Amino acid sequence: MASDRDVLPAWAKPTHYALSLHDIEFGGKFGYKGTVTITTKIDKHDGFSDLVLNAHQLKVHGAELKTGSGTKSAKNISFDEKRQRVTLDFGEQINYSGEATLEIKFEGTINNIMAGFYRSKYTPKGEVPASVAKDDEFHYMFSTQFESCDARRAFPCFDEPNLKASFDLEIEIPKDQTALSNMPEKEVKSSKRDGFHTVVFERSPIMSTYLLAWAIGDFEYVEAFTERKYNGKNIPVRVYTTKGLKEQGRFALENCSKIVDYFSEVFQIDYPLPKVDLLAVHEFSHGAMENWGLITYRTTAVLFDPATSADSYRNRVAYIVAHELAHQWFGNLVTMDWWSELWLNEGFATWVGWLAIDHFYPDWNVWGQFVTDSVQQAFALDALRTSHPIEVPVFDGLEVDQIFDHISYLKGSSVIRMLSAHLGEKVFLQGVADYLKAHQYSNATTNDLWSALSKASGQDVNSFMDLWVRKIGFPVVTVSEEPGQIGLRQQRFLLSGDVKPEEDQTTWWIPLGLHTGSSASKASVHETTALTKKEDTIRNVNDGFYQINKNLTGFYRTNYPADRLKKLGESRSQLTVEDKIGLIGDAYANAVSGFGSTAGLLALVERFSDESDYLVWSQILTNIGNVRSTLSGSEDVSEGLGKYHLKLITPAVEKIGWEFTNGESFLTGQLRSSLLLSAGVAGHQATVDEALKRFDAYVAGDKSTMHPSLRRAIFATAVKHRGESALKAVQKEYLSTTSIDGKEICLQSLGRVQTSELAKEVLSFIFSDKVAMQDKHSGTIALASNSKVRPEVWHFVRENWDSKIHPTLSGNLVVLERFLRFGLNKFTDDKTADEIAAFFKDKDTRGYNKGLEVIDDTIRSYAKYAKRDEGVVREWLKANNYLS
Fold it and tell me: What positions are marked as the site Transition state stabilizer (predicted)?
């Protein structure tokens, strides 16, 4: 056994499961019974007396092992709750090697914590069969979520990613409901229970336990077929929903059938299953889950109604559908060997998901989106001491949930984009196809991918990528200028700006993307392609114009001299969207860390008031919002920055207007939504007046006054400027909305309240049973982002930890960790960091300890920044007439 991980004994391996679920209670205790028969390969020459499997929160009633030499029954069955294991002790030495059959009888509960086999509550549309589970207020559908280690909550199994096996599944259900699984239905058998029958599914391919899935409910579907033929047939693609919602699955459906064909071509391997089902699940801990052949989604990630949904969700649905489909090859067909290489699944699916959306929606500028969203979020987490390498040691399955984070997904995809840009997309994808062919239906490591890419490109990929994957952090490249040449120095970038020599040992391979010429329009690629030393001098650089990290394809920050930053700002009309985003994002990060200054950032951004691109504005508003949030403790600076913000956005918001016109681009619509939200909350008077006028008309019953994409801007503006009456109206809207995205939009808007009393009211609403567990973080994060009421979030957590927060969220530590990490990381004073650390000091924080470290590191880094730059910003605001 590898000492760096706690895994099951290696001498017993499953090859096939036959799982039967029956006696499911559609109400009451929501119990069920099951039998699992596991064909097991035993390779232990000195004999054994027990077998160890994974099981969590299950009762095991009996187990029998059939070998060539007879049948043995388990004499003693014991559980190790902490390690989530069951030991079947047969009471005697068994001397046997070869194939055996292990049959286990068990029972479990369909829980309500979005993990394992669980139930989701919903309010149905129209008639519902009498058999559907319900209570006084809601109806329920049943589905599964097994990644990373929750198949063991549903049935006893060998729950590790490299213990792949095939699966036969049968489920006893009421005749008027539908059962789904990874594979198509094979047959329906009669059942002893009145009104029930048993649905039997075809055998699955060999796969990891975390990819098994099933669902039961009052489902309907929309269907399409792939254009390509697979084994002579067009594959059926379906989007399943509870009754009354199926038409909102059409947009996902259109995307899905096209993307399956696209990936089959790109990966040079046909989609391997006979069907693709997408299922909308009413309560869901993540965005979606790539179960092979039965992909599950939270409703806002798969359903879209052109008449009632905000247009931003169109982008979200298309991308998440593509991301999960990428996993059908990268993750499902070829699976990481162990959770330490989770990034192989998630980083790749993120990058290739955007690649597919770029192919189908070229006018969305998805790489610009990627740079302003994914890359910047990856930088934010990786700039902390408490970050972790992309490939991170994972001791056991219980540690893995905390690395489903911005490093595995977003830094992982950012370095893949960097590598693809360096090798060329065609060569890169050929290497990926070779990797998939070599390891299909088995497991692989990062080195296996590097080997395939090295072979395809003729370059030693491992030599320049290894440090990016195995070392923590990323570099900042500091530029110094001399006539005709520039000096470059790389060092580790930390948000806190205080890198110690022992933390700065890595010398990264840095693709320079250096362009130079007499002007931005005449610039061309420089002959020097990479920085491979700590310091270097690059000659033949034209002083007229030069730029490093063109299109921000390299995962590093650039720190230019102040004058050069100014000149690049002056050349902005000739820079790409990605270049502008990189310039602003780097200037902001350098200000926070002390490599640059906030005065330099403010002067740079001021030049962008004539900008017309949504993605550049998105970067500006995020960064200026963060500066305002960090310095909100100082009244005069806060006031001056408010005036700066208003002056900055006024020309753009007045130009964009309120009306959506036929034929305008997706990005123009996004810009309007974003600017009106920013202007309304910042107090731009004309925007506030118009928003309140539309809000009043909407509340009075005239729904036509509010475009679906402007709900957030209007609700947020009303809540901020009207207070309690608007709060009540938005809460009412939350409870009555039939729009799929309506609840999320309402919760985000409630975070704009301006008084402690109203913030407390919002928090008690969030923690009532009116708000589903999956959404409790949304409203909390919105309050935490609001400097006016932020302290109330921490007070609420502290005062209600034992009575509300821990009991409500701790059943699913993914949900608890996310709630804390993003609900408490916006403070900017050491005192709060000390209080949080003291509060959790004596608690068992396993499962969310990493999140607490990130919170502490983030708060202290921003506290340092606030202390250092407050005076500088005050001076700049005075000098530029934002403060008298």
Answer: 409
Q: What is the DSSP string of 311-355?
A: THHHHHHHHHHHHHHHHTTBTTTEEESSGGGHHHHHHHHHHHHHH
Tell me if 392 sits within 8 A of 403, measured CB to CB: yes
Of 645, 651, 652, 686, nearest in space to 672 by CA:
652
The dihedral built from the CA positions of residue 172, 174, 176 and 181, taken in this order, carries a sign that is: negative
What separation in angstroms does the CA of 534 have from each of 508, 510, 562, 765, 786? 8, 10, 22, 53, 41
* 644-681 residue pLDDT tens: 999 999 999 999 999 999 999 999 999 999 999 999 99
Q: Identify the CATH class of 15-217.
A: mainly beta
Amino acid identity, position 695 = F
- Among residues 481, 483, 499, the alpha carbon closest in space to that of 491 is found at 499
Helix (H/G/I), strand (E/B), else coil: 96: coil
Look at residues 159, 55, 56, 157 and name the one whose alpha carbon lies nearest to residue 102. 157
Give yes or no for residue 69 having a pLDDT over 90: no
pLDDT in tens, 310-342: 999 999 999 999 999 999 999 999 999 999 999
The single-letter DSSP state of residue 202 is: P
323 in a known ligand binding site? yes
d(CA 242, CA 177): 10
Dihedral sign, CA of 412, 413, 416, 417? negative
Distance from chain centroid for Cα 864: 29
Q: Which of 147, 170, 324, 578 is catalytic?
A: 324
The continuous run of DSSP H or E covering 635 comes out as helix 635-656
For 90-115, write each residue's pLDDT tens digit: 999 999 999 999 999 999 999 999 99
Distance CA 211, CA 436 (A): 18
Is 425 annotated for ligand binding? no
Report, in angstroms and rounded to the nearest whole number, the Rg of the chain calculated over CA atoms.
Answer: 28
pLDDT at 231 over 90: yes
Task: Give the residue range(s) of CATH 2.60.40.1730 domains in the chain.
Answer: 15-217
The answer to whether 303 and 280 have CB atoms below 8 angstroms apart is yes
Q: Is the pLDDT of residue 847 over 80?
A: yes
Euclidean distance between CA atoms 40 and 800, whole angstroms: 48
Domain with CATH 1.10.390.10 in the chain: 219-332
The 3-state DSSP class for residue 571 equals coil
CA 816 to chain CA centroid, nearest Å? 15
CA distance 819 to 835: 18
What is the Cα–Cα distance from 67 to 574, expressed in whole angstroms? 74
Question: Which helix (H) or strand (E) segment is 417 a member of?
Answer: helix 412-423
The CATH number of the domain covering residues in 219-332:
1.10.390.10
- Residue 16 annotated as lining a ligand binding site: no
Q: Nearest-5° angle of CA 834, CA 838, CA 841?
A: 135
- For 301-336, letters b (16+ CB in 10 Å) and e give bbbbbeebbbbbbbbbbbbbbbbbbbbbbbbbbbbb
Question: Angle at Cα 355 formed by Cα 352 and Cα 361, nearest 5°?
Answer: 145
| Count of CA atoms in the C-beta half-sphere (13 A) of 279 | 33
Query: Would you say 793 and 780 are in contact if contact means Cβ atoms under 8 Å apart?
Result: yes
For residue 250, the model assigns a pLDDT of 98
Q: Tell me the C-alpha to C-alpha distance, in Å, between residue 157 and each of 136, 678, 816.
A: 35, 51, 26
Give me the residue label for tokens 């005749």: 175
| Whole-angstrom distance, CA of residue 143 vs CA of residue 116 | 8
Does 324 qualify as catalytic in the annotation? yes
CA-nearest of 516, 338, 349, 518 to 432 is 349
| Distance from the Cα of residue 668 to its chain's centroid | 25
Q: Does an H or E element contain 580, and which?
A: helix 577-593
| Distance (Å) of CA 527 to CA 118, 538, 549 | 58, 10, 14
